[in-house]
Amino acid sequence: MAEKRIVLGNCGKTDPQDIESYLKVGGFKAYEKARRMKPKAIVEEVKKSGLTGRGGAGFNCGLKWELAMNAKGRQKYLICNADEGEVGAFKDKYILSHDPFGLIEGMIIAGLAIGARKAYIYLRGEYHPLKGLLVSAIGQASGKGYLKDMDIQVFEGAGAYVCGEESALMNSIEGQRGESRYKPPYPPQRGLWDMPTIINNVETLMNIPHIVNNGAAWFSAMGAGRSKGTKVFSVSGDVAGPGIYEMEMGSTLKELVVGLAGAADIKAVQIGGATGNIIPGYMIDTPLSHETFLGSGAVMVFNSTRDIIDIVHNDIRFLNEESCGKCTPCREGTEVMLEIYGRLQQGDGRERDISTLEELARTMAAASLCGLGQAAAVPVLDSLRYFYNEYIDRVNQSQFLRSYLGGELVVSKEGIR
Predict the structure, then answer these.
(1) Is the CB of residue 123 less than 8 Å from the CB of residue 97?
(2) What CA–CA distance (Å, rounded) separates 56 from 409?
(3) What does the CA dihedral 300, 306, 307, 308 come to, rounded to 10 degrees?
(4) Cα separation of 260 and 224, whole Å?
(5) Residue 413 — very low, low, confident or very high, per pLDDT cuts 50/70/90?
(6) Please, which pLDDT band fits residue 358 given cuts at 50, 70 and 90?
(7) pLDDT, position 411
(8) What is the SS3 assignment for 395?
(9) CA-CA distance, 417 to 398, in Å (whole number)?
(10) Beta bridge partners of 245
């Protein structure tokens, strides 16, 4: 299946530094149409389209907006989550770099729908070079009179992965430490400064002008099941053509990583970054959707030379470092997992390590406060499910080494002795 570029439709065709080039391709026509609609009608159109959040959770966007629209508050906020910190994800960076006006138009329409007059673009700290481009685009849109109903501010994060989680993100904007909050209440009811708040990611908002222009029926005709429209993926790893691709929901993983990115000799694919599912190469015909595997759109391909335990070890090392430490299951669980994977890597694994990893993963998934700790279990459990023999081999190798050396291993920077 070929690419279907809707969200990426203007990328490479318009000048991201010049609003005139965006206007020439029909830019802000959706905004003009939305201004003639009642807020409830905009929300209904988005609900009927079946647009779901593209950040990974997959909640119905229109339903979320409806909660905020009906919520009481002297002020309502819209936040665009551009804190793209997931391992292997770089699609939002590409979108922001190539089509900032499309994002601004989507944000203004969202503001009309929910009644928000103040909005933030929460920009990942590492994306600082994009701030000037975004500020310039906002200034040009304001100069053309498109920001009469909304003030948009670019807010830079400080590089914490956990601030991609919506409640930690709001804490960050409020000047507090970036930690997740207990829920409920949920942001559409009580979010930023206790006011009704909608948080959508970049790709979600980029879909809004297209839905308003073309209608809910046009959008919902694409995709499969409850996964409507298209999805943008960032593909990396052992592929001939790493990059950004957009495909209709329900397209297979094979069409993406083999057909478009040129992968071969596939051992495994991780979908959704460090907290994403790891599936074996023989499942390459799986459709990409909310019903199967999707995540945030980061797709990493590993060929037969790669070590699965090494891959998961890297995932856990990252998550352990990025855990905010607020809740015990995540803070202590990733610490113990890191210690076990370190020993497995160093030839000092124990048979009980396998059952301990599974028990820890299931506990963390059930008891952690936010998505970081809950989803840290995913690569561990998937690798145990599909690559169990690699764990057994590693434990057997460790036992052999211990017996060969006649006792306990001593692992140091100088090696094993």
Answers:
(1) no
(2) 42
(3) 30
(4) 20
(5) low
(6) very high
(7) 55
(8) helix
(9) 13
(10) 233
Decide the pairing of beta strands 77-82 and 197-201. parallel
The continuous run of DSSP H or E covering 397 comes out as: helix 388-405
pLDDT in tens, 311-351: 999 999 999 999 999 999 999 999 999 999 999 999 999 99
Nearest to 186 by CA among 362, 293, 57, 323: 57
Tokens 């481009």 locate to 133
Q: What's the start-to-end Cα distance of the chain, in Å?
A: 54
151-156 β-sheet, strand order: 151-156, 118-123, 77-82, 197-201
CA 298, CA 353: separation in Å to the nearest integer?
29
Residue 396 has which token pair? 């057997």
CB-facing half-sphere around the CA of 252: CA atoms within 13 A = 11
Task: Answer whether residue 403 shows pLDDT above 90.
Answer: no
Q: What is the DSSP string of 208-247?
A: HHHHHHH-HHHHHTSEETTEESEEEEEEEES-SS-EEEEE
C-alpha distances in angstroms, 83 versus 91, 222, 223, 291? 12, 28, 26, 25
| Max Cα–Cα distance, the chain, nearest Å | 81
| Strand order through the sheet with 277-280 | 243-248, 230-237, 298-303, 266-271, 277-280
CA nearest to 93, candidates 61, 129, 140: 129
Query: Which tens digit of pLDDT belongs to each residue from 258-300?
Result: 999 999 999 999 999 999 999 999 999 999 999 999 888 999 9
* CB-based contact 158:322 (threshold 8 Å): no
Q: Are 301 and 261 in contact (CB under 8 A)?
A: yes
DSSP tag of 200: E
- Sign of the dihedral through C-alpha 307, 311, 312, 314: positive
Secondary structure (DSSP) of 343-381: HHHTT---HHHHHHHHHHHHHHHHH-SSHHHHHHHHHHH
Residue type, 380: V
Residue (of 208, 152, 219, 150) closest to 33 by Cα position: 208
When computed from its CA atoms, the radius of gyration of the chain, rounded to whole angstroms, is 23
What's the DSSP call for residue 74?
S
DSSP string for residues in 269-308:
EEESGGGSEEEEGGGTT-BBSTTSB-TTSEEEEEETT--H
Q: Phi, psi (5° rounding) for residue 57?
A: -70, -35
Q: What is the pLDDT confidence band of residue 407, given thresholds at 50, 70 and 90?
A: low
